[in-house]
Structures are given as C-alpha cells and as structure tokens.
Specification:
The chain is α/β, with parallel strands linked by helices. Helix content is 26%, strand content 21%. It has 7 helices and 10 strands. The strands form 2 sheets. It has a 7-stranded mixed sheet with strand order 3-2-4-5-1-8-9. A 3-stranded mixed sheet has the order 6-7-10, with helices on one face.
Length: 221
Amino acid sequence: MKLLLTSAGISNTSIHNALVDLLGKPIAGASALFVPTAIYAIAGGADISRKVICGSLGDPFCELGWKSLGVLELTALPSIKQELWVPMLRETDALLVGGGDCQYLCYWMQRSGLADLLPSLLRKTVYVGLSAGSMIMTRFGTTYGNHTLPAESDKSLGLVDFAIHPHLDYEWFPENSLANLEKLAATIPVPSYAIDDQTAIKVTDGTVEVVSEGHWKLFTP
C-alpha cells in the first residue's frame, strides 16, 4: 500500500520528492485520476473543484504536470458499467482524492464500489489525499458538509491505524490550534498526527514517515 496523505496538496519540495519516490517515476511520466466528490457537500463546492483542477486555488495537486489527468466522479459510478471505469482505474499511476466532507466522501467511496477495490488497487497505484481525502483513509473523519446521508454513515475507511488532523494553525480554521487538536486527539484510541499545510504522512506498506517543511505533532492515546 502506497499513500501520501497531505493537508493541502504538494506544497513543498519534500512532499513533491516523496510523491516521486512512491510513483517510482517522474510525475511527467505518470497518469492520474482526480476524485472531487468530497467537495460537493461544501457550499460552493463545484467552483472549488474547478479551481483545484485548474490550479488556481491552494497548493499544487492536479496541475503538477501529469502525463495525463482524468476526473473520477464517484456519484456517477453506480450508474455506469464497471468495465467502463475499473480498467481505467487499475491502469492509473496515482489517485488524487480531494478535500471536503469526510462522511460524504466515505459514503460514495462505499456506494460506488471504490472502497472495495482499494486494497488490491493500492498495491500498484499511489493514493494521494488532500485534507478529507487523507482523513478518510485513517481511523477518524469529520462531518461539516450539507448532505442528507444516514446519520450512522461511516466517516472514514480505517485502512491505516492512526488519525490525521490537517490544517494545523491555519488561519481559515481557528479551531485547529495545537491546543484544540490535542484535546481532540485525547478522545481517539489511536495515535493522531496534527499536521500543517507543509506536512504530509507517507505510508509505504507498514512503514509510516512524516514528510515536513513545517510543523506537526504526534499524539499517542
């Protein structure tokens, strides 16, 4: 399993190099699929998705110079024959999963069938998460979107046995102070990484590595 779990994208040289290492090839020689689904549960999500794809919002993610870039919309997949999208998914080098609402993203990961494919898919494909796209792979997710999913819907897939709290000390999220995240981490029975937008968690099979040019802290239960 190869994961690069970021707070805000490929925000610095260290995270960029970690991505290239996981891919085993230059980004210019790699194909990618972008999953924007999580952002649709947030006000203005459609426009945010457009900006992320175009590279006019936030740190580099989609516009890194991929050999090819496609969009995989999870809400459409249940109405499409699997032979139209599963082979494409298996052939891609990187799956870029954007931010937004964890519960909405988790629901559509499961509803679309993508969640069932991930364990075998990630033997080859690199999973690159951004914010909620990272949190969904861990043991903790958040809900703050506008949706009508069942209240008991999962908020994360739990593919790795730790939690991530992104956007540490970011001005847009004043609740994400180190003190507040430490209190939150105390309620979670697994290790928690509080990471800022210059930090990512790299997972290669069972090995976890913090890649950072910023600030982060590990909280143990």
